[in-house]
Amino acid sequence: MEEPIHVGDVVERLRKLYGVTTDQGLSEALGVPKTTISSWRTRNRAPYDACVEAVRKYRTSLDWLLFGEEAHGVRDDGPPPYLVSESPRTARITAFLRHWAATRGEDDQAWLEMQLARAVPEYAQWLASQGIG
User: Fold this and answer.
1) Strand-pair partners of 69
2) What are the structural domain ranges in the chain?
3) Is the pLDDT of residue 125 over 80?
4) Which residues share a beta bridge with 75?
5) Which positions ≥6 away from 62 have C-beta within 8 Å?
6) Is 0.70 surpassed by the pTM of this model?
7) Which residues of 72-95 are buried (b: 16+ CB within 10 A; e: fewer)?
8) pLDDT, tens only, 57-92
9) 10, 95, 113, 81: CA torsion to nearest 10
10) What DSSP string runs through the chain?
11) Which long-range contacts (CB under 8 A, 24 or more apart) does 4-11 make?
12) CATH assignment of 1-84, given 1.10.260.40, 3.50.50.60, 3.20.20.140, 2.60.370.10?
């Protein structure tokens, strides 16, 4: 028998991906009214378009996002390992960058990256080592 999708859990995992803690924050990150998120829960209808976009954007597993499972089928109630931060400070920075990317256009993202490269020489060096910039 197929396991049902629990939309409340899907919404929580979307929040983790986008680095927000509230439905309001998620609605802003996704560009939908807050009532839309409530509607997903009430109707227990997964937001497949938003899920596919999040999977592409954060390169995570659709199995994890919809079912809380990694691709190999093992239950995992936390975010994928590469989303787990080593410290609260790193978590804040990562959450902000996710929020910025979700709510800003390409020009703003380019501006932020340029500022970071100017302020943190190691980042500029890392970009160069990756063949970027």
Assistant:
1) 75
2) 1-84, 85-133
3) yes
4) 69
5) 51, 52, 55
6) no
7) eeeebeebbeebeeeeeeeeeeeb
8) 887 888 888 888 764 444 445 555 555 545 677 777
9) -70
10) -PPPP-HHHHHHHHHHHHT-SSHHHHHHHHTS-HHHHHHHHHHT---HHHHHHHHHHHT--HHHHHHSB-TTS-B--S--GGG--SSHHHHHHHHHHHHHHHHS-HHHHHHHHHHHHHH-HHHHHHHHHTT--
11) 4/44, 5/44, 5/46, 5/66, 5/67, 6/44, 7/40, 7/41, 7/43, 7/44, 7/45, 7/46, 7/47, 8/41, 9/68, 10/40, 10/46, 10/47, 10/51, 10/65, 10/66, 11/37, 11/40, 11/41
12) 1.10.260.40
| Residue appearing with tokens 């899907």 | 10
Q: Of 38-47, 85-94, 108-117, where does mean pLDDT reach its minimum?
A: 85-94
* Residues listed for the chain: 133
For residue 90, the one-letter residue type is T
